[in-house]
Amino acid sequence: MAKKIIATGYGDPADVLAVTDVDVPSPGPTDVVVAVRAAGLNPYDVKLVRGVMGTKPEKLPLSLGAEVAGVVHAAGAESGYRAGDEVVVYPAAAALAEYVLADADRVHRKPADLGFAEASSLLLAGVTAVDTLATLGVTGDDVLLVHGGAGAVGSIVVSEAVAAGATVIATASDRNHDHLRESGAVPVAYGEGLAEAITEARDGKRVTGVIDTVGTDEAIDVSLDLVAPHRIVSVAAWGRVDDGIVVVDGSSEQSRHHRRAAVEPLLEDAASGRITVDIARTFGFDDAAEAFDELLGAHPRGKYVFEPK
Ligand SMILES: NC(=O)c1ccc[n+]([C@@H]2O[C@H](COP(=O)([O-])OP(=O)(O)OC[C@H]3O[C@@H](n4cnc5c(N)ncnc54)[C@H](OP(=O)(O)O)[C@@H]3O)[C@@H](O)[C@H]2O)c1
């Protein structure tokens, strides 16, 4: 038997998260069973548990966790993998567990130079960041405003846009401004005075595009004063689609294409150190509810990583 985290209902993680015993999965011919070393926690997992994405009773109990890194435990004859291979699974299902079953087309070889924790927490945010940049078509000529530039998605947006030569202005809490400066962005504080702070930061230049990873009305309103709606690409402002902004989530063919194409380059860039994945906290079966609780609030910069021991 093996352990797995589930949600038995929708609501406060402390009330609904549970650890259950399940059989270790057996692989079909094209499947791989991975012994989990680390799994990345994402806001999506927390929103799922809290019922933000819907509260259908028939979906209970919920399995959680969409990305994982580990070691192949058993592999189907047609999977192309062997026991002992170090891999990353993305997109994964039910990753907050000791073992994960995945079709081989979702399995990627983990670069030897990339740690398990970092590998487990790179791809969901990374492919999303690359999708926003590709959708907006960011080039070195752009003056880009990034809302949430110190978050998991935002920090990869910032580093890729800076690497492309763009001028980047990014919002974050004061405690993250040094990090943004080190990444090559001009930091601004969100909240009261945001519009004035952006005016000062752009220093007479015209903002040519916006990537929003926050989704607040404040972020969208200030952006609509700077650029045409189609130059605003968001991953979170679902309530503002009627304003003509572009929201991406991997559901369109173009968005899927951007995300698929981003996986291998992201793994290479993280292994070479061109992209860094900072870890804020690791947690296990016993303190999962606490980690879930922290992630949607004001939390330290970096990823929350599940380690099943
Ligand atoms: N559509 C998609 O495909 C997709 C994919 C991945 C994620 N997402 C969504 O994208 C969002 C970000 O995900 P993430 O993994 O990057 O989360 P994260 O690492 O927790 O980052 C959240 C960021 O939001 C900033 N923030 C918090 N409150 C804010 C406010 N009121 N105004 C401005 N910024 C604020 C934080 O800044 P400070 O810490 O500096 O305060 C932090 O940088 C989530 O809503 C997630 O569900 C969507």
TrEMBL record:
GO terms for molecular function: oxidoreductase activity. Residues 12-306 form the Enoyl reductase (ER) domain. It comes from the Bacteria. SUPFAM superfamilies: GroES-like (SSF50129), NAD(P)-binding Rossmann-fold domains (SSF51735). Gene3D superfamilies: Medium-chain alcohol dehydrogenases, catalytic domain, NAD(P)-binding Rossmann-like Domain. InterPro entries: ADH-like_C, ADH-like_N, ER, GroES-like_sf, Lipid_raft_assoc_Zn_ADH, NAD(P)-bd_dom_sf. Signal peptide: none annotated. SMART domains: PKS_ER. This is Putative oxidoreductase.
